[in-house]
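agent> fetching stored inputs for the 3,4-dihydroxybenzoic acid docking request
agent> found them:
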Amino acid sequence: MVDLAVNFCGVKFRNPLVLASGILGITASSWRNVVANGAGGITTKSLWLREHKGHRNPVIIANQYYMLNAVGVPDAGVEKAREEIGKFLTLRQAPIIANIIAGTVRDFGETAAQIAKIKPHILEVNISCPNVEDEFGKPFACVAANAARVMQEVKKRLKGCGAKIPVSIKLSPNVENIVDIARACVDAGADALTVMNSIGPGMAINIETHEPILSNKVGGLTGPALKPLAVKYIYDIHRALPKTPIIGTGGVLTGEDAIELIEAGATLIGIGTGVYFRGAEIFKKITEEMQKWCNKNKVKKISNIIGILHSIIPAIHV
Ligand code: DHB
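agent> prediction call returned; pasting tokens
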């Protein structure tokens, strides 16, 4: 039997597959279902401090090539989130990554402090939603200094309430140099990095009515074609910051896809759009495919091949 367990910032996952943020339900019972389907852990959707209304329909376009979404990050606020996370934690089934979002640096800190009270295993800071304007008029993830400000505030507030929760910050692919942003976040205290959020935003048009299909007009692009981008960014970041663990996410549909991101340097793998492509059973399917691949390639422990590419080939400067 192949050992698929990984250790991420001191938290043990039975396998590297985690539900990515924003996918499926937001209740303890829906997370339980994801774990029953084979996930090693789950990430909550992005949680706001106060109730936040999403966009009106249509909010998602999905076909066999891609998904475009501008759900608008709806959420009932921190009280409801704490209730559901609390319920899930009592089940002791799998680690939970609480994903938080805010429009200001201050609110990021406050939300982190509020969510920390319930003690999720890991906090993921979403500074990269392409559909939410922040106080600087563009996602925090697009400017290294702004990303660092969020990180510093979150760490300061967690320290202030004595919470020892590892923090991963979710980066955007829509930047000139993702390594610079990653480095700024790590210098500001990030324990881990989530690479990456959706690309774009993109647009789709209803050519009969001559209108954008999404009510928000534009949305974040995801799906299997993003995988090479995720692989390259994970590769670059792992090379620059080898001690910082990475949650790799971007277009993973199969066990081979997951292995590819792991070889580039990811420790955990987020599955998002894949759930739409292969159903909720995708976690079991990918786990089996990873087992098979490992058996064929004589890999006994998946953790042995994290970032293996880096020990085999010299730096690629592209
Ligand atoms: C939304 C949030 C995201 O982080 C993303 O990548 C795409 C869409 C949203 O809810 O609108």
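agent> quick read of the result: The chain has a mean pLDDT of 95.
agent> awaiting further instructions
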